[in-house]
Amino acid sequence: MLPLEGLKVVELGHYIAGPFATRLLADMGAEVIKVEPPEGDPIRGWGSTHNGHPVWFSIHGRNKMSVTLDLKSPEGRARVIALCARADALVENFRPGYLERIGLGPLVLQAANPRLVIARVSGYGQDGPYRDKPAFGAIGEAMGGLRHLTANPGQAEFPPPRCGVSISDDLAGMYAAMAVVSACWGRDRKGEAGRGRIVDLDLVSSVFSLMEGMLPEYGLTGAIRQPAGAAIPTAAPTNTYPCGDGKWLCVAGNSDLIFGRLMRAIGRPELAADPRMVNNTSRCLHVGELDGAIADWTRTLSAKDAQAVLEAAEVPCSRLFDMRDCVEDPHFQAREMVIPVQDPLLGPVLHPAPPFRFDGVTPPEMVRWTAPAIGAHNEHVFGTLLGDAA
């Protein structure tokens, strides 16, 4: 039994943020009906393919039912309304105003189902001067403040890199999933009198919400946090260090006790006893010296061997894992974080496990099926669930 079993969700949208939210809800047991255009979600064309089918979409559409509709046709609109009439929630991530223009705005949908929760995910939000501007995940990173921080100091000639995944889409999707569950819970507390809410989420504010203490710091002192590369300016030593095999080791040795263990492990006990290194504040003033000492040591070992030495000393650390490292790691395996599944379109494939655990349900049980083909559930949804009522 998964906690959201019985929750009915309709997904309207494409690409990443909205579908990521519904994937999380589906992984937790919700019935998710993904409405795609007849040609399919455009993201089915992204990334690598195998047997002519998109690999990423196997995860992106898992545990969902796929139906196809032309939202601009009378039949398509009628069926969306019918789907929403039986649903608890709708998640959509079109540009603001699009659903209203095609006759499927909240007033129409909640007239058919006053209890419907509608989560609207967009680049900039449903109002404000930028609401009509197009946006993708990279824009959320840029305007939300994250991309400014990913630069390496002293390398102004290079653009600050993205983090490697569509982080602002994923963040907005996670917030949307949490907001949907919260809105449904609040509605259901009121029983039959409960009404659905409209939730407004955007990529920019999702990233901006993660900026830790930077806003109050600026408000109080005018300070603007600058890029720090792999280090943490307020904690020392915490950085990523080069190893003898060309790989990197991330080390977090900033508490007083851990710092002492770290210095002894790398053969520099005198630094642990140095009055200049008595606490984190003092160490931050001499972080260059500390980073140099640690790097001198890590360069003499492979990343794996250096990690083993520091772990034996109970110093938090990890080499930088690539996907092979993740798949082969015994902790990943013991926690069933990598799940082998059979995809009818791709064959045997690996999926990441849902990141949450529930009593009595193992991660493989949470992946009930992989992403279906375009419109695979048209007959079941329109014929069985709706009875062609639309």
Automatic annotation (TrEMBL):
Keyword Zinc-finger appears in the UniProt entry: no
Gene Ontology molecular-function annotations: CoA-transferase activity
UniProt keyword annotations, A-Z: Transferase
Family annotation (InterPro entries): CoA-transferase_III_domain, CoA-Trfase_fam_III, CoA-Trfase_III_dom3_sf, CoA-Trfase_III_dom_1_sf
Top-level taxon: Bacteria
Record keyword Transferase present: yes
Alphabetized PANTHER family for the sequence: SUCCINATE--HYDROXYMETHYLGLUTARATE COA-TRANSFERASE
Name of the protein in its database record: Formyl-CoA transferase
Species the sequence originates in: Humitalea rosea
